[in-house]
Specification:
2 copies of one chain form a homodimer. In chain A, strand 6 and strand 7 form a beta hairpin. Helix content of chain A is 55%, strand content 9%. Chain A contains 12 helices and 7 strands. Chain A binds a DNA duplex (30 and 30 nucleotides) through helix 3 and helix 5.
Chain lengths: 278, 278
DNA sequence: ACCATTTTGGAATAAACGTTCCACCGCAAG
DNA sequence: CTTGCGGTGGAACGTTTATTCCAAAATGGT
């Protein structure tokens, strides 16, 4: 170990997960082979630290436990136990007693209102996690670019998707971005409002609504870019859109929470606004 | 310990959290004092088991560690370690590497689309947890009763709340429950559609929209029951509604995810449908 | 009030785990 | 080829934590 060693060891330990990640990044690249293996493995499996023993983490990284111990010390902790405490605390703060509460709500019995709330909360949370896990960043960036360049954004979404579309309309309005909600009021399709330089953002979940598909086809025929927000698999829509964003929404019963779709839509809207300003 | 003891000990351990809770309930009431204390404390703090030592849990329950050990064995486990494993596994399955992924998304830098998604996901998840934590079951049951008795349910919700109201309209339609969405199209207030035997379900977040308040007042004047779904504090609305349901929605930036509001609304709708059928 | 039986608390024991230490290896400079 | 030094692995150690056991207290029935 080089001479600046003492300096590293004397620095105090990261107090937050973010600080931990920062130091991990700072160290990467200037470490001997085994320690680098530790760093790599830990970066990829941070969530396992809270519940695993040194031996387990070390095995996962393919190093002997003593190497992992050295790594912990280089990170500024006195040892593995201290490092683990950081992750344990983060984990327990994350779930104050949410799990218990959920369980208690469910305990009321099937059909009880509180049980239903618990189920929908659970479905929503899982949807959020699925979104974070499966997000296609490339597609998202592409969608942002497309929509940021559009003069006017046309929003389509009927039935289940209508709440998402209408919320987007509200948000775009607040952000000062020209957007038109195709709501089908009075049976009008507003096709003629699609003009060169515009773009279409359609939200539809399988089974896809006829109106949405028609509008998308129409937009494509006119050469307008189309972004579709839908659920996987989206094979059928491949020919209809330039960019396809998918969200896996976990349903409870026949109803979906829309949480993930709304979160993605919201992020999309804010990102478009940011991009436009610059 | 009574004679059926052997039978209990030989039963194998619960394999899931739900099975665990079942046995806990089954045992409650027929246990000696100290063991009952264990059962009570554990029922209330199940989420702490994964990360605590026997000594800590025992102290929390106000019993010596040995009592807690006996309790674990009565529950069918070989000891505390085996019981803890159940909770640890549940905990780690719940977060495969959601936390890591979120962190990676955020790492992209402020303003990046993926960072925004991470933020909204985080906000949504927190909202869900807040809903589960703060749900007023009494108010919820009351709301269900009120709405289940109504001939027609009138839905009001403008601006931010409109997506929630429109989703409710969709869901009630699918459930075969008569509901009218007051969408303000053509500037009509549809006041005359409020008839005896109906009920109003209004969704509004502060600052409350004028139209919604007007409609609620109108309904009350006619003696119709009013249920309001809003955010805390709801003091101003006290005089306007028979039942007030509150959801704490965590916003990111100026926008709220609506996750919690939608989850609650959905649960309400399904509960009303269930109640009607019976 | 006495006995049989269950329950209890804490001290003793065992297991798991974190941590340290040291002998050995590999590499790079002389 | 030798020497020096950081890097490495595994065995030994110490601490923490789970688990058992038994004597004492409590309980309930007669």
């Amino acid at each position: 170990m080089p001479k600046e060693d003492a300096a590293i060891l004397l620095r105090d330990a990261p107090q937050t997960i973010d600080a931990f990640r920062d130091r991990l990044l700072g160290l990467s690249g200037q470490l001997p082979r085994r320690l680098q293996q530790c760093a790599d493995h830990i970066a990829r499996h941070m969530d396992q630290i809270a519940l695993s023993t040194v031996a387990q983490v070390a095995e996962g990284a393919g190093v002997p436990p003593s190497a992992m111990m050295r790594f912990c010390q280089i990170m500024g902790f006195s040892g593995y136990a201290e490092m683990q405490r950081l992750f344990r605390e983060a984990l327990s703060r994350a779930t104050p007693d949410y799990a218990t509460r959920l369980a208690n709500l469910k305990a009321g019995g099937a059909g009880q209102p509180s049980t239903l709330v618990a189920e929908f909360v659970e479905a929503g949370r899982q949807s959020m996690e699925a979104l974070a896990r499966d997000l296609d960043e490339t597609a998202l960036n592409q969608a942002v670019t497309t929509l940021a360049q559009a003069r006017t954004i046309h929003l389509a979404g009927f039935r289940r998707s209508f709440p998402v579309a209408s919320y987007l309309a509200y948000v775009f309005d607040k952000l000062g971005i020209p957007a038109i909600l195709h709501d089908g009021v009075a049976g009008l399709a507003h096709r003629s409002s699609l003009r060169p330089g515009d773009a279409l953002l359609a939200i539809t979940f399988s089974p896809y609504s006829e109106e949405t598909l028609t509008l998308a086809t129409h937009a494509r025929d006119q050469g307008l870019p189309v972004v579709i927000l839908t659920d996987p698999p989206a094979n059928q829509l491949a020919g209809l859109a330039d960019t396809i964003l998918t969200v896996t929404e976990i349903d409870f019963g026949a109803f979906r929470s829309l949480s993930a779709a709304i979160a993605l839509a919201l992020a999309l809207a804010v990102a478009v606004a940011t991009r436009r300003e610059t």
